[in-house]
Amino acid sequence: MAAYKNKQEEKRTTPSIPGTINMTRRNSLPEEVTLRDLMREIQKISEKQDTYQKSSDEQMKILRKELSDQLTTTKNEITNEIGEMKKEMDTLKQEFQEIKRDKIKTEKFQGKIQIRMDNLEAKNSKLETKQELLEQRELEFQLKFRNIQEEARENLRQIIAKLTAEILQITEEEADENIDRAYRITTNYSKRNKVARDVIVQFGRRRYRDDILKRNNSTPVSFKGKKVVILKEFPMSTLMKRRKYMFLTEELKKHQIRFRWERTEGVMVTYKDEKYWLTTEEKAKDFYKKLKKEMAESSEPKG
Question: Which Gene3D superfamilies does this entry report, sorted A to Z (predicted)?
Answer without folding.
Answer: L1 transposable element, RRM domain (3.30.70.1820)
